[in-house]
Amino acid sequence: MALIGTLRTKMTKFVVGFVALAMGAFIVGSDLFGSGPRSIFGGNQNNIGEIAGTSISRDEYQNAVQERENNYALSYNRQPGEKERPTLQNQAWELLILKYAIRGQIEKAGVKVTTDEIWDMVQGKNIDPNVKQSFTDSTGNFDRNRVIQFLNNFNTPPPANQQMYAQWAESKYRWDMFKKDLAAGRERVKYENLLIKTNYVTTAEGERDYHNQNDVAEVKLLFVPYFAISDSSVKVADSDLKEYYDKYKQKYKAKFTRSLNYVTFPVVASAEDSAKIKSEAEKIAADFKTVADDSLFAATNTEGQTPYKKYTMATLPSTLTKDKLVTGNVIGPYLSDGNYKITKVVKAGTDTTYVAKASHILIRWDNETPEKKKIAKDKALKILKEIKAGAGFAAKAREFGTDGTASRGGDLGYFTSGQMVKPFQNAVFNAKKTGLLADVVETQYGYHIIDVTSLKDNSSYTIATVELKVVPSDDTHNAAFLKAQNFAAGLSGVAAFKEKAGKENLNVLEAKDLNTNDQRVGNLGDARKMVTWLFRDGSEGKVSEVFDLDDNYIVAIMTGETEEGYRSIDQVKEEITPAVRNILKGKKIIEKLSAEKGTLDEMAKAFGTDAQVSSSSDLKLISNTLPSAGLDPTAVGKTFSLENGKRSAPFAGENGVIVLDLQNKTTAPEVGDYAVYKSQLEKNINNRSGLNIAEAIKDGSDIKDKRYKFY
């Protein structure tokens, strides 16, 4: 049965992990349980999407999800929770894409995986890594006999014992599932390799790459940034925007998105809520004094994570002071981190380990010669003298400290015996009083100026704690919900929404361009129910019902929609205006520079203080930047297109206008063999191809994900 456990922990992760890795480009989110019950959908509204011309029904998708959930339950011995379900739903959708889009392409290519190949991967010469990992002996080596023994279990009648049969059935299910996905994975690898092997790099391409990496240009350039011309001096006309939009329209391809505004009504515990919980805590404190079993009482009544724990001075909560830590003493209720706590000292004693607390300033020496060590010690003694005269220890630590504690004023916090090097520990642990030590202490790291902030102590305290969280009452929830409901009542239209929010001093938040698969809205965390409403029921100007999210009640309104295709010029106007303005600025700068003569320095002086002249003596084509001009691959290309001694005309670059003077271009000498460069290019192409194959199939499969209508 040990092998069953091995399969559970290793093979299942492979099955899910392989698909997740192979289909990474296809991840889309949904929330199966994000909105109302499944049964409310029926009739002909059963289509949740389309993949490569195949309609995907809700039942088929739910079956795929159920398979993933079953697999999860077998792997982790528990049902998936709300956090895991979106991932499992994504995997189910990926498997459907694999089935209807990718497998279709694999079949068209005639790629198949035979039973002999599966045998070879399981117990032949080319064992799959996951099989190797699952069937290892005590030395960590693959044991083929264990595989054969495991598989023979399925060739004999199943055990009669009910528990053993359940384990046998689980193991067989897992193995069958693994074998199925093993074949699918091998098909995928063979198909991708088939396409990748069509990549070819010519010798001419290898030679070009060699020159791109090794040819060197010496260039001087004049750069005038666009901000040299003020925005107010350039008027951007609608015709300019349209010309730019038409030229670069491909940049504004858009998916189907919707936008919304929303207001929040936080649910915060009131003073009455806090007082009620404090009253309850006071009753618990009274009972705490007389109970016989402190640990049981604390564990039964607390809402915190540590009802019973042993502490030292190093771990003791800052809210507890040593003078109150007497056996049997009940402390509280008191507020800590926003909650009420009642603490009972079960036992006060001593521990075998001592702790102390100190701050230090470490002055290192450059090397261990007597001269360098003396310099370091003199410096440390000087700082010590200044602190004794009244200088702040923390300030001096920040100024002169040479280790990681300098930024926090030299504070080391608590440390235990054996944690620090001996000379340092002895100096602190032997201190008779807190405060600055009279002399510096030498260790292997340097000279330390030490401030003892807590003397050596081996006290220990066993403490029982009851924590009651201060949370909003039902009345507080109801009041916040009623406020949200009243806000939404009879409201429609974005203008009216904003006006009413203004009157009620509510901050209107915006969430633009939400996708159908989004789980989050702004900083609200899991807000899938809002997204589902937006795409299933929303329309421009329509106000939502009240959503209950993250201790907030939310009211939203749909503000707009972008259809799949291209964003309109009105939608991108604000985005493209700065780029168009720079184009117009560039024309003005080019006109002014074109009228100037002389050297680049003379042209820069004539233009004004914003013009900069710089140079590079080792510019290469593989570089994407130029001095002063910054990132500008096109300008680098223009540099290498010039002949030695020639100057370019002024031209608009990424960040401003540029004039190039090519002073010298050195072409790398020819080599007899460009195989190294060809090989590297081919490797890069193959890597990109492997990542892009799935995406290319997806783009050509007309995938329509409509799960948002249901989930």
Explain how this protein is built.
There is one protein chain. The protein has 711 residues and is α+β, with helices and mostly antiparallel strands. 43% of the residues lie in helices and 21% in strands. It contains 21 helices and 22 strands. The strands form 6 sheets. Strands 6, 7, 8, 9, 10, 11 and 12 form a 7-stranded antiparallel β-sheet that branches. It has a 4-stranded antiparallel β-sheet with strand order 17-3-21-20, with helices on both faces. Helix 9 crosses helix 18.
Question: Brief overview, please?
Answer:
With 711 residues, this protein is of the alpha+beta class. Strand 14 (547-549) and strand 15 (552-562) form a beta hairpin. It is extended and about 90 Å long.
Features:
disordered N terminus; single chain; 4-stranded antiparallel beta sheet; 22 strands; alpha+beta; 711 residues
Query: Portion of residues in helices?
Result: 40-55%
Helix vs. strand class: alpha+beta
Number of strands: 22
N- and C-termini, Cα separation: 39 Å
Percent range for β-strand residues: 15-25%
Residue windows where pLDDT falls under 50 for at least 5 positions: 1-44
How many helices? Answer: 21
* Mean pLDDT over the residues: 89
Assembly state of the chains shown: single chain
Radius of gyration: 36 Å
Write the layout of secondary structure elements.
Layout: H1 2-22, E1 47-51, E2 54-57, H2 58-76, H3 85-108, H4 115-123, H5 129-134, H6 144-152, H7 162-196, H8 203-214, E3 216-225, H9 238-247, E4 253-254, E5 257-266, H10 271-288, H11 294-301, E6 308-312, E7 330-336, E8 339-363, H12 370-388, H13 393-400, E9 411-416, H14 422-429, E10 435-436, E11 441-443, E12 446-468, H15 474-488, H16 494-503, E13 509-514, H17 528-536, E14 547-549, E15 552-562, E16 565-566, H18 569-594, H19 600-607, E17 612-619, E18 625-626, E19 630-631, H20 633-641, E20 651-652, E21 656-666, H21 675-699, E22 704-705
Antiparallel strand pairs: 1-2, 1-22, 3-17, 3-21, 4-16, 5-13, 5-15, 6-12, 7-8, 8-9, 8-12, 10-12, 11-12, 14-15, 18-19, 20-21
Helix pairs in contact: 1-2, 1-7, 2-3, 7-21, 8-21, 9-18
